[in-house]
Design goal:
With 213 residues, the protein is mainly α. It has one domain: DhaL domain (Serine Threonine Protein Phosphatase 5, Tetratricopeptide repeat). It is built from 9 helices and no strands. Helix 5 runs antiparallel to helix 6. The termini are close together.
Length: 213
């Protein structure tokens, strides 16, 4: 099986729901080690994406739709998360190109390019207590699943599960990037909000794939 435009539109709808549901929790996580606006910013951004998707042409490719997510997030989301996530979607869209259907290898290509986009924009590495601590385990798990011949749905589920574990694993870390880095050891014991939101977004991707398969 493969994933087409229906997957992307369903993913966006599920992301809107999961971000809205977890908005206050993300605000609380960010208030502990950051500006406290992460949940509000993402909620506003993905609501804007949903509005744009309401008029998405029926013949849109997954890449074109993902590019629309990127440009909307970059233009509407404040703070660091807008440019970072926007770049992730943009680089991911470029990786899948004009394909109308995405197989497991294409899903891995999307995830890898998205992660690399965040690294390029934010200059963060695994262990810095950022969203990279969710994205890199996701890419590694997706790559392994695809190599084992797993379907796109299974590849995305592996990625989502690894991202969730990666987000939890940020709690004992000292932050080396962003506002949290100013806190030093005081950031220990707090989960990174960007890693947590990334894990929620990737879980929405897996849920969407499972729904449209």
């Amino acid at each position: 099986m493969s994933l087409g435009i229906n997957w992307v539109t369903t993913w966006v709808a599920k992301t809107v729901d999961v971000v809205s549901t977890n908005r206050l929790r993300l605000v609380d996580l960010d208030r502990e080690i950051g500006d406290g606006d992460h949940g509000e910013n993402l909620d506003r951004g993905f609501t804007a994406v949903a509005t744009k998707f309401a008029s998405l042409p029926d013949d849109s490719t997954p890449g074109a739709a993902l590019k629309l997510v990127a440009t909307t997030l970059i233009s509407t989301v404040g703070g660091a998360s807008g440019p970072l996530l926007g770049t992730a979607y943009l680089k991911g869209a470029q990786a899948v190109g004009d394909a109308t259907e995405l197989d497991s290898d294409a899903v891995v290509a999307f995830l890898t390019a998205a992660r690399d986009g965040v690294v390029l924009r934010g200059k963060a590495e695994v262990g810095d207590k950022t969203m990279i601590d969710a994205w890199t385990p996701a890419v590694d798990a997706a790559t392994a699943a695809a190599a084992d011949g797993k379907s796109p749905v299974e590849v995305l589920r592996a990625a989502a599960d690894a991202a969730a574990q990666g987000a939890v694993a940020t709690e004992p870390l000292v932050a080396h990037k962003g506002r949290a880095s100013y806190l030093g050891d005081r950031a220990i014991g707090h989960r990174d909000p960007g890693a947590e939101s990334s894990s929620l977004i990737l879980a929405a991707a897996a849920d969407a794939a499972d729904e449209v398969k």
